Amino acid sequence: MNFYSNGKLLLTGEYVVLDGAKSLAVPTKFGQDLQVEKIVEKQLIWGSFTDTGECWFEAIFALPKIRLLSCTFAAEKEGNAEFIAETLQTILCEARKLNLDFLQTENGFMVKTKLTFPRNWGLGSSSTLVNNIANWAKIDAFTLLANSFSGSGYDIACAQNNTPILYRLENKKPIIQKVQFDPNFKEDLFFVHLNKKQNSREGIAKYRENQGNIQQEIAEISQLSSQILSTKTLVDFEKLIAEHERIISAIVQLKPVKEVLFPDYLGEIKSLGAWGGDFVLATGNASTPKYFIDKGFKTVIPYKKMVV
Questions:
Q1: Hey, what CATH class is 2-178 in?
Q2: Backbone angles phi, psi at 62, to 5 degrees
Q3: Per-residue confidence of the chain (308 residues) as pLDDT tens digits?
Q4: Which helix (H) or strand (E) holds 304?
């Protein structure tokens, strides 16, 4: 059995998507595979591989109880084998609760997951995993996400769709609208990686700490999402994302990334997801990649090479 899920980028509505803001999200051409093979031993033998084919995490679970027997982790900086194994165990056990027959077989399984993007890119290594496991277990991925992690679920919606979407939560339920977002100025849009992965859960916690009554801001961001979706010119697009940055900056009490890192840049820059890491969206021209590369940000991906 083979499963695949798209990665994700949230173009508008970071943070406030949690509280019902209408947000524009796009699935990426990068994602994660999950391959399942039956084996004789009543074990779940798990291997996680990088985009370059290196095994960075292995674990063995006894079935049917999903009891952890061993785990190894190719440590670089963050995480450890036990924590990752326990997180995976939690996802599998929550999947079992939603489908009591999941992993209740006479045989075992060998599972291999493979990212098609570097682990530090923040394109959804967790959400693509959750969606793949949900597909394997034949359960609802949004419920599995809510029971094992947290978040708005827009990343699950991207994992499941091959078009841009408008996404919002209504009474904690996802409302997903497939949309056309193919701006005629997409040649002038670039995704730039900030050389570090931002912990989205930490970002959400900080947002919750600072958050007051933001119903007006949620309405404004929802309107901006609709306007950005329908904008026809790069100039108008830049005005809209600059206004979006101003609103979110006031809510999370952080300076916009352009002001902090790129004050001399010719175009506009917008944070995507938790502020301070992962990718930003930059408007620009043919000289844009050189500007960022010269400043030490080597990963600059044109819009059409990133978005499905």
A1: alpha beta
A2: -80, 135
A3: 999 999 999 999 999 999 999 999 999 999 999 999 999 999 999 999 999 999 999 999 999 999 999 999 875 545 577 889 999 999 999 999 999 999 999 999 999 999 999 998 999 999 999 999 999 999 999 999 999 988 899 999 999 999 999 999 999 999 999 999 999 999 999 999 999 877 777 777 777 776 778 999 999 999 999 999 999 999 999 999 999 999 999 998 999 999 999 999 999 999 998 888 899 999 999 999 999 999 999 999 999 999 99
A4: helix 303-306
Q: Compute how many other C-beta atoms are within 10 angstroms of the C-beta atom of residue 175.
A: 14
For residue 27, give the nearest of 142, 164, 178 by alpha carbon: 164
How would you list the strands of the sheet with 279-283, edge to edge?
Answer: 269-271, 279-283, 189-193, 300-302
Amino acid code (one letter) for 277: G
Report the alpha-carbon distance of residue 64 to residue 43 in Å, rounded.
Answer: 8
What's the predicted TM-score (pTM) here?
A: 0.94
Sorted by where each begins, the domain ranges of the chain are: 2-178, 186-306
Q: Find the Cα–Cα–Cα–Cα dihedral 142, 143, 144, 147, rounded to 10°.
A: 120
Quote the tokens at residue 194: 């900030």
Q: Tell the residue number behind the tokens 């502020």, with chain if given.
A: 275
Tokens of 67: 């009891």
Q: Give CA 285 to chain center in angstroms.
A: 26
Element (H, E) at 193: strand 189-193
> Is the CATH code 3.30.70.890 the one for domain 186-306?
yes
